[in-house]
Batch of 2 targets.
Target 1
Amino acid sequence: MDSVLIICGTNRPDARTRIVAKYVEDYISDKYNMKVDYFDLQDLPDDIARSSMYKGDDMPEDLKNFQDEVLIPSKHIILVSPEYNGGLAGILKLFIDAISVRKLGPSFHFKKMLLIGVADGRAGNLRGMEHLTGILNHMKVVLYPTKLPLSSINSLLNEDKTQLSDESAKKAIHSVVDGFVDWSN
Ligand SMILES: Cc1cc2nc3c(=O)[nH]c(=O)nc-3n(C[C@H](O)[C@H](O)[C@H](O)COP(=O)(O)O)c2cc1C
């Protein structure tokens, strides 16, 4: 494995998911000698939800560039996804659908992926990750068998809620990321 793409699966300002995704990015950059790309659904164009999105060629230019230059060449992906209303964020499903109507195979088929869930409640987005598993299996993504649910996320952050501070949460992230890297090699 010589590169990985990390995706922050929400566009919510102040998302705790972003803090976790950035932590994963820093951990991999510090420990492994590999190219690390990062994509945040916050950077999706505001007009992504339009009926013409189903014509793949009409995809906004920035998203097209991301798909062609970053997503398609990436063979390994870590998706960090928040729990909204007991499932994945709507914007994440919209992103997956928008990408899939243009170049489904080269974007998703047989890519290796790790899922990490983030929730303020106790479920750690387990249900959202189960739903994602069904969706991604359908899209021929090969999922790492272990999924990491991070529950009560606000209690795992520092006082000003800008960084992950809980040592056991950090260890759990290191362990699942290291396992994913080993499995992918
Ligand atoms: C629309 C919405 C719905 C949410 N629903 C849930 C939920 O069902 N269960 C839960 O534990 N937390 C829920 N939360 C809280 C998020 O899990 C919490 O904000 C967490 O930090 C992950 O989301 P974030 O990355 O946007 O911060 C919800 C948050 C939003 C914005």
Note: The chain has one domain: 3-184.
Target 2
Amino acid sequence: MRNGAFRRSSVVIGFVMAASLISGTGAAQADEIEGQGVEACPEDLLCLYENSNFNSGKDARILMTNLTIADLGDWNFDDTASSYVNNTESSVILYSEPDFKGKEDLAWGASQRAQMGPFVGDNEVSSLLTNPAD
Ligand SMILES: [Ca+2]
């Protein structure tokens, strides 16, 4: 009896792990939603908000990603971000030009900024590097 119960819970745990792999925590991804607020940003993703204060007051575009993106124009998000939430444990470098050029800002792991800056300003982010080597 005990042995059977143990085996059954192992199967459940295995299923949950497989489901989380498929749904993508940890998998490379980028996606766009409409929303607002810090809580709109899922765990393990960096979220760029179209407007300052995390789109406060009105749903607007949010680009959510854990990818390195050389040109945010590919996601129709070039020169768009006005605030961000880094809901990952790693730093992300934000650049004012495509291909990791121009001015740089460091978005620390588990940090947020209601207004872009100080180095890459409002509507300036054009590329981003996730998991930079220290
Ligand atoms: Ca903007």
Note: Residues 2-23 form the longest helix (22 residues).
